[in-house]
Amino acid sequence: VALALANCVKIMADTVEVTDGWKAAAFVVVFVLMAAVAIYSFLITWWASRSEGSTHASKAQVKSTEDFITARSRVDVWKMAFSLYASVLGGSVVTGPASYASFAGLLGLASYAVAVGTPLLVVAWCGGLARSADPEATSLPNFLLRRFGVRLNAETADEGICGLAFLKPGQATATLSALLTLFVMGVALLAEYATVGTLFRSFVGCSDGLAAVPTIFVGLLTIAYTVVGGLYISVLTDRIQALVSFVLVIFLAIYLASDFDGDTSGPVTEDMKGFSYAGWSSVFTMPISLISGTIYSEALWQRVWAAEDEQALKRASVGACFFVMLVVFFFGFGGWLALWSGKATWDTDPNLYFFTLFSSGSNGILDSFAGLLTLSCAALMGQGAMDSLQNGITATLSSTLLKNKPLSWTRILVLLVNIPLAIVGATSWVNDVLTLFLLSNMITVSCLFPLMVAVIPGEVAKAYVTEAAVWAGCIGGVLGSIIFGIDQVGGDVADGLDMTFMSNGYGWDYFLVALLSSIGCTLIGIALSWVYRKFLEQKEAGSGKTPANAGTSPNPEAAAA
């Protein structure tokens, strides 16, 4: 990794000419900022390994795979708030909200801002329930495996369902959860890599080859300190990244308020207000799609296990939610303001709407100090999101594929998984991958309600929210949206599938159908579980036997199995 980083710097130094002043400054400032964060993480890890008896040092020490992926109950409310903020706000927050506001208006922007912050509250609530139900879980898939796997006795668990070992209780649901979280995080991580490359290519003015250098550089840096320190080091770096990036946001806001000179004489149209199909549709589609996508991200579930206690998690989520919404709205409003004032035009690259506020032309090319600070802010926030996603991917794979394996296996896994993703993120292929965002959102919306009821603690919930009910909800949501899509295109199956998962333009009706179908099928599954258990109780009562698993907790040996 160190050799690859050195090679990135050498390529940059050989390619960028001294006469390219702003271009050279962009590389130097961004590289120095990101390297400083990595050096800080390495120093913390080194200090922890040599310090004995210190509370702070002991928290940073990694003694097992569980320490590496959960940092169990080590993070206080302030660190947790900074970490949640940095994990949610990636570099794409500088480009995405501004672009979205250009066609969804102020109403759409407000929905976007609320939708980015609200998932923190939802994950904190669900996470609190999950911690109450099973304080020893190490990831979302692991929680679901334990949630449904300990319900049957040890003999049945070993045999599997219907005698099939690969259908052990909880295994199918845990596998589905793992696949969903990996897919969601993989697409999100590639989006962060793509943002770095896009900004250096479009805003800084680099060639495709040169723009790949900072992408690979930041990817390798985050991989390096993730390999060394695991989740807790990622949390500590989140604190630095969050503080510095927020200070930069404040500076940009003050600079914009004092130096804005756009022609603000244009009228604010109904579309710019958001009183359009896109704007009204965003009121539902943005919150539900981002909540469902975020709740299937292990990057945030790791923070659930890392928080000192449930109250620290909830208080941190409230503070982080407020500042996340504030920052998202600021960058989105900046892009909206650029279009309204004429600083940006419809010929401007949508990713650069905000940047045109600090550029001499509507093309959004780096030529000012404020523009350089905006680029630095995007890079820092991108780095914070990247290391969180890298840790999340590692935790999902480690808790499912490498259970009970040595810590060194997990560290090797970080390299094997994330280095190829960093390379793909630096290529033009990444743009094709990002078209999968809608597919990801539609599937996670279909699986949102089943997961939320599965984390409810208590014997009653365990008795009736069965694995079959969860699967019924997930499959029902997907099938319901497919049938609706086929109906919308006139009955053609292929076109219906494409419309449902790739081309519906985030229409509110598709998301509503998926959600309601999922809720309905989950409730039907729960009702059938209740009917079946009542039938068994009556049957066993007639024979004078105690019903198997009828609302009673499994014995300690079965629970352990």
Q: If you had to describe this structure to a student in words, what would you say it looks like?
A:
- The chain has about 550 residues and is mainly α.
- Helix content is about 75%, strand content about 0%.
- The protein has 24 helices and no strands.
- Helix 2 (about 20-50) crosses helix 10 (about 210-260), helix 5 (about 75-90) packs antiparallel against helix 13 and helix 21 packs across helix 22.
- It is globular.
- Mean pLDDT is about 80; it is low at about 150-165 and about 550-560.
Name the descriptors.
single chain, 561 residues, mainly alpha
Condensed summary:
With 561 residues, the protein is an all-alpha fold. The chain has helices spanning 2-15, 21-50, 55-60, 65-70, 77-88, 96-133, 140-149, 154-159, 171-203, 208-259, 270-273, 277-295, 298-306, 310-341, 369-401, 407-425, 430-433, 437-446, 448-454, 459-464, 467-488, 493-501, 508-543, 556-560. The radius of gyration is 25 Å and the shape is globular.
Work out the oligomeric state of the chains in this entry: single chain
Question: H/E series, N to C?
Answer: HHHHHHHHHHHHHHHHHHHHHHHH
> Span from first to last CA?
41 Å
Radius of gyration, in Å, reads: 25 Å
| Count of distinct strands | 0
Name the poorly predicted regions.
151-166, 548-561
Could you say which overall geometry the principal axes of the C-alpha atoms support?
Answer: globular
Mean pLDDT: 80
| % residues in beta strands | under 5%
Class by alpha and beta content: mainly alpha
Could you describe the largest sheet, including whether it forms a barrel?
none
Number of helices: 24
* Fraction of residues in helix: over 70%
